[in-house]
Amino acid sequence: MQAAFHHIQIAHQRVGDAVVLNAVATAKRGGVSKGWVFFAAGRDEQAPEPAGDTKFTQRRTLGATLAVQTASPEPPEVVCGDHSGTIHLSAAQHRLLKGQNTALAFRNGQTAEITLDWLKWHVTHHGMTAALIVDRAKPGENDAYLAQLRDGLSAITGLKTVVVVQFDHPLGRHDLPSEMHPFCAPDAPGKDRMEIPEADPWTAPLGELGIFELLRHRFLAKARAVAQIDLTDLLLIKDDAQDETVFDRAQQSGVVPLVGQHVYPWRVRSGQTAHFADHACRQFDKDTTRDRWCVAPEKVSKNTVWRFVRIVGAVTDRAAAQPFARFMGLRHPGHSVSQIVPKSSLIEDMRLLSIAQDHFAHDPVRMPTLAAPVVDTTKNAVTIITTMKNEGPFILEWIAYHRAIGVENFLVYTNDCTDGTDDFHDLLQAKGIVQHRQNPYRDSGMKPQHAALQAGEQEDVIKNAGWVICMDVDEFINVKTGDGTLAALFDATGDANMISLTWRLFGNSDVHAFEDRPILETFTKCAPEMARKPHQAWGFKTLFRNIGLYKKLGVHRPKGLNPQLWQDIKWVNGSGHPMPKDTYRNAWRSTQSTVGYDLVSLNHYAVRSAESFLVKRDRGRVNHVDRDQGLNYWFRMNHNVTQDTSIQRILPALRAEMDRLLQDPEIAAMHRRCVTAHREKINALKATPSYADFYETLTSDRMQRLSKLLPNFGANVFLAGPDVVPDHMIFEDQPGDFFFTVGLENEAAE
Q1: Could you tell me the residue ranges of all domains in the chain?
Q2: Where is the signal peptide (predicted)?
């Protein structure tokens, strides 16, 4: 027998500017009628009040909506601001769904085909007998859907009742675009770069959160059990399930939590629209869930409140939760998978494949297969890829140090040099010490660092490397285990194929003048290890085995994860502890739970001396080229709080390697040329009024004192800049644990 089909249209009421979605009569005794009145979101700020003989016996705020329980001679009267009116109470229609296993769902553009497949799945696998579908279409725009749905019900054996409810007032949020747009996809990448359409409350994510209480009182109070899922959700079959359905379990416990996970197609075939059966993937690194519920209305207290994600006042056991899948290709039709989720996060799920193939008889597009990487543990040659501009005086020490700890290859990209940096690298290439390339950023339209990394991917020195790291000439790998070499680090980290090297920010140690002496000997003052602020303090760079786990090079870590290989990643932090899987795709800085310095750190000498910083500011940045390296940068990066000389145990090996290199007269002459050019540039800059003033500020007593107080400042202070710190806090004694921050309105441009 075909299921009974009901289409019920609900008209809103108004009292002044306030919209009443619906009002439902609940009881009548002794001439007094009780009911619930549900006001829509966006009502006048002045709360409604009873008028005449009407009393409000309860008020409930449900998200941005308000529900009031009234007691009055029918009909109730209310006042909203300067307006008053009577409210018509609709009769409850509990008989429609009485005693039935009912799903409560919202339709937001889904087709009749999807709806019918959704109904059939839950009738077949979960004992559902009825559905209440809230169709969010505008009145008159769903006639074809209703006809197709009604016609298709005859093919679903066991389904008894379908009720489609339609409101003439939008139920979505008034500040968001259509829910179908990628901006409303929770996992969509690049939201900060999206062009966001205008708000559309008819199709936006649900905003009228009082709707669940409204539907409870109007239709659902006598249902055997109600499962709140959408037309894009399928309740999954529990591995331990026997004949007991989620509706049966709700009868026993009152409420069963429903816990959902987003699932995705790998790709939908050209010319076809997404279907449940196209979804065979989930994210490997997302453990967050969508919480919903299944409630037996007459098994829980009447004082419970039905909300979006929980039944307030009911006791639930999350360990007994029923899983469901949310099919995201159906929620965001017409958009490619990569627009709604990073494809590098997707892996195939055998349970989803079984649903597609066994239930829907469909062969979804599968992920490409990749062979597990083969690791040659004897192949440990390290290649550094780097970019430089006007770094001449610092090249030799940096190369000598890293050769001393075991780096074999350097791939250097330079651009727009005026101090001999490019000529120096041409010479070093001729001597077989580095490989030097001109940075192709002008032809690519990319920033210099990104252009270099893209070009470097094609170089044999990268392709054939055992390990690769992208790092700058002001960064030094500080191995703290064994004899301080990279070989000792690899021994200590076992079978790791990625190692994060967290920055330790080193300041200028109150050194103002440039001297041609080792950085590692001159600058020993730094931030404490547990320095969570500023945001950059725990940035990291990553040593990684070049075995195909990722598609391309990145500034802080390789990028473009091949998700099929995520389980082959063995990524450790600087203490040798495993990094969590949620860092595998995008992380660029450590957190309190992932920071580690026990085995290795990356000493970051971002400012050096005050004089050299003038040249750095004039030169500009290789990545964030549009940002000035001014006083705010110096303030954030100049940490002179504590001292760390652990890297100096390599000084004898460093000096020996530098002496060996400087025995070559051409190398020695080129180094002197770069040092001279650096000094000349410093003098030229200090001769200009703006740089003279800037140098005076950098070397002031105020800035020197600030560099020793940075752990005591909140994040907003580093965004706003040094001027927000009061003088008395700098020049007067403060408790060692004092803390200072400011509001975001003080934020200054970098």
Answers
A1: 4-86, 94-359, 382-683
A2: none
In sign, the C-alpha dihedral spanning 192, 195, 197, 199 is positive
Alpha helices for 493-626 (secondary structure H)? 519-522, 610-619
Specify whether the CB–CB gap between 9 and 169 falls below 8 A.
no
Q: Indicate if the alpha-carbon torsion angle 162, 304, 325, 106 is positive or negative.
A: positive
Mean pLDDT over each residue of the chain, to the nearest integer: 94
**Phi, psi (rounded to 5 degrees) for 694:** -65, -45
Sign of the Cα torsion 715, 719, 721, 723 reads: negative
Please name the helix (run of DSSP H) or strand (run of DSSP E) that holds residue 102, with its range, or none. Answer: strand 101-107
To the nearest whole percent, how much of the chain has pLDDT over 90? 89
198, 177 Cβ separation under 8 angstroms: yes
Report d(CA 523, CA 511) in Å as an integer.
8
Mean pLDDT over 74-81 rounds to 90
Tokens of 641: 């709080």
Whether 202 and 177 have beta carbons less than 8 Å apart is answered as: no
DSSP β-ladder status, 49-51 and 77-80: antiparallel
* Residue 58: strand, helix, or coil: strand
CA dist., res. 39 & res. 71, Å (int): 16
Instruction: Classify 382-683 by CATH class.
Output: alpha beta
Residue of 143, 163, 149 whose CA lies nearest to 220: 163
Task: Provide the 3-class DSSP secondary structure of residue 676.
Answer: helix
Two tokens at 372?
């597990």
Looking at the DSSP assignment, which residues form a beta bridge with residue 62?
65
CA distance 482 to 395: 26
d(CA 449, CA 457): 13
Q: How far is CA 362 from CA 106, 152, 365, 483, in A?
A: 26, 20, 10, 59
DSSP 562: -
SS3 label, residue 437: strand
Long-range residue pairs from 723-726, CB within 8 A, at least 24 positions apart, any chain: 723/748
Q: How far apart are CA 499 and CA 481, in angstroms?
A: 14
The Cα–Cα gap between 477 and 485 comes to 9
325 - beta bridge partners?
234, 261
Strands (E), 136-200: 161-167
Secondary structure E strands in 251-302: 255-265, 279-283, 290-295
Contacts of residue 473, Cβ cutoff 8 Å, sequence gap at least 6: 386, 388, 391, 394, 395, 398
If one counts every other C-beta atom within 10 angstroms of the C-beta of residue 146, the result is 16
Angle between helices 665-686 and 421-430 (to 10 degrees): 170
746 has pLDDT over 50: no
Is residue 359's pLDDT more than 70? yes
DSSP per-residue letters across 109-120: S--HHHHHHHHH
The Cβ of residue 170 has, within 10 Å, a number of other Cβ atoms equal to 18
Would you place residue 309 in the very low, low, confident or very high pLDDT band (cuts 50, 70, 90)? very high
- How many whole angstroms separate alpha carbon 71 and alpha carbon 667? 94
Residue with tokens 């997404």: 274
Distances 744 to 215, 713, 714, 715 between C-alpha atoms, Å:
43, 14, 11, 10
Q: pLDDT by residue (tens digit) across 458-468?
A: 999 999 999 99
Using CA atoms, how far apart are residues 459 and 546, in angstroms rounded to an integer? Answer: 13
Burial class of residue 465 (count of CB atoms within 10 Å of its CB; 0-12, 13-18, 19+): buried
Q: How confident is the model at residue 747 (pLDDT cuts 50, 70, 90)?
A: very low
Per-residue H/E/C for 212-272? HHHHHHHHHCCCCEEEECCCCEEECCCCCCCCCCHHHHHHHHCEEEEEEEEEEECCCCCCC
Cα(292)–Cα(311) distance, integer angstroms: 9
One-letter amino acid at 476 equals F
Q: 684 with 710: CB under 8 angstroms?
A: no
Strand 311-312 relative to strand 233-235, pairing? unpaired
